[in-house]
Structure formats: C-alpha cells, structure tokens
Design goal:
Elements lengths: L9 E6 L5 H17 L3 E4 L6 H10 L1 E4 L10 E4 L6 H9 L3 E4 L3 H15 L3 E5 L5 H7 L6 E4 L16 E5 L5 H14 L13 H14 L4 E5 L5 H12 L5 E4 L15 E6 L5 H13 L4 E6 L11 H9 L5
Parallel strand pairs: 1-11, 1-12, 2-3, 2-4, 4-5, 6-7, 6-8, 9-10, 9-11
Helix pairs in contact: 4-5, 7-8
This protein binds iron/sulfur cluster.
The site of iron/sulfur cluster has 15 residues, from helix 1, helix 4 and helix 7.
Length: 325
Amino acid sequence: MTEADPHTRRVLLAAPRGYCAGVDRAIITVEKALDLYGAPVYVRHEIVHNKYVVDTLRKRGAIFVDEAYEVPEGATVIFSAHGVAPVVHDQAAERSLKTIDATCPLVTKVHKEAVRYAEEDYDILLIGHEGHEEVIGTTGEAPDHITLVDGPKDVPTVEVRDPSKVVWLSQTTLSVDEAMATVGALKEKFPLLQSPPSDDICYATQNRQTAVKQIAADADLIIVVGSKNSSNSVRLVEVGLEAGAGASYLVDGADEIDPAWLEGVRTVGVTSGASVPEVLVDGVLEWLAGHGFDDVRIHTATEETLTFSLPQELRRDMKAAGLKA
Ligand code: SF4
C-alpha cells in the first residue's frame, strides 16, 4: 500500500465489496418473477437485508410478508436468500402456494450438513446470532439436534448428550475471527468436537472481511455501506475496528454520513456488505469527493467470479414461456 501523503485526502476503496453471488441471484429472482408472473409477487421476509433493494422491489410490485399465511391461497411466494425451515415449505403447501426458493446455495449447503449430522445422531453446535433468519432456518432442519452458540459467552452453559459425537456448524456471515474464538472455546470444553467438512462462513463474507482488514491499518475512518440488520455488514464494521481503523460506521447511504466524522481524517476506507448495490457506494464516494476526498484508490484483496443459476422452479417457468434464464 502506498504511503499516505500528509497533504492528500484519500479514499481506500475495498474490493471485493457489495453483491455476492447469492444476493445477486435472489434479487434477479424477484425481478424475473415480477416480469414473468406480473405484480404482485409475494416475498417471505426481506429478500436480502438491504433497505434500498427492498424498497426498489416493493415499488415494482413485490409484497414482503412475515409468514406464509399472509399470502393469498394459490399465489406465488419467493423465499429469501437466508433460507427457510422445512416447516415453512409445509405451510406454503397447505395454502397451495407456488414457491420459488431463492435460498443461497451456500446456506442450503449448511442445511444439508445439519440434516446429515442429525441423521447420524450427532449433537450439532450451531455458531450464529440468535434470532437471525438464517439461524432460524438452519435450526428448523433438525431442532432436536441443534444448540445455538452465540459466541464464547454461551460456551459454559452448552451441554451435549455424548461429547464424542458433537460437531460445530456456523452461520455463513459471521466474523471469521470471532467464530474461530468460539470454536476454540468449544474445543476446550469438548476436545472431540468435529469440524464441518468445509467452511460454512461463505467465500463472500470471508473476502469482504479480508479486504477491509487490509485497508484498516491505513484508514483513520472506515465507512461501511449496509443496513443495520445485515449481519455481514455489521461484521465489516467490527472487523475494520479490530484491524486498526481509527473509527468505523455503518450507513445505509451517503445521507447518513456525519461530516464531523471527517475531523482530522486523511484516509477514509470504504466498503459495503454483500447485499448492497454499487449505486449506494457511488453515492458515498460522491459525498466524500464533495468534502475533499476525491483521490480514490482501489485495494483489491481478491477477484470473485462465482455465480449461481436461478432457482430451478423459475428457470422451468421461464423456459416454458420462451424466455432465456
Ligand atoms: S453472503 Fe454468502 S451465504 Fe449469504 S447470500 Fe451471499 S454468498 Fe450466499
């Protein structure tokens, strides 16, 4: 990284940032469903945790509901990227709803791991945040086998039936370092604790955290663009602070930036959560340029190329309508 010129105000723009493959797929799913079936299309919970995205889709005719029973019988409902418990599929079937499941395939992977370990009669310690939709969905796959561990503070009270048959899984959007601290504490208590076959914290979460870590030491201030209910965005603020940023704030957009944050600041780091459209980052960069921070340097931690195909139910209907998925 280049040395800071004491007379220059600069922006370090982290890459990767913004949309991950799962979010991109979920948003396109709602857009294509609106095109194909016409409004309204019902979406259970926020399709992704971003206010701008949800408001934009609402204007196009998406109706966001909390539960399947709020959807009129026979209507189309899309399940969000965070995943749903099997009981939600049952509720939708009871109401004869047409369902399109936009659960991120990397969340589905964790669901499948939970089912497999439960079938093998393991106790599963799920590291995640209490009340988060993804955790509720994963827990619903095997409620009798899963215990939520919301950080090292929970470890002293965790109990298992057989300490030789216990495995940990995790929410996909945790801080990697914090999750590992929890795993460390669990391993001290249960030395035979098994690990999942591959990382549950997804590539996008990890890459965005790596990028923010790399700019943090040089940043007097880090602005993370993201909504307050976005787990991975909140984690970026925490990771930036832990890695040495002078200060870090989460904003939904430029209108939430407080000019006082720039007092004495020479270098501002900017990044965004996995559910954030780039237009919001552009707004923040414009705002910063208007306050003298017009020297933007991109710091790329790694390149991302992963994409996911649309849910098969939607692809099938698009094909039947002569549309290209
Ligand atoms: S953050 Fe990760 S798990 Fe969540 S939607 Fe994006 S790729 Fe999927």
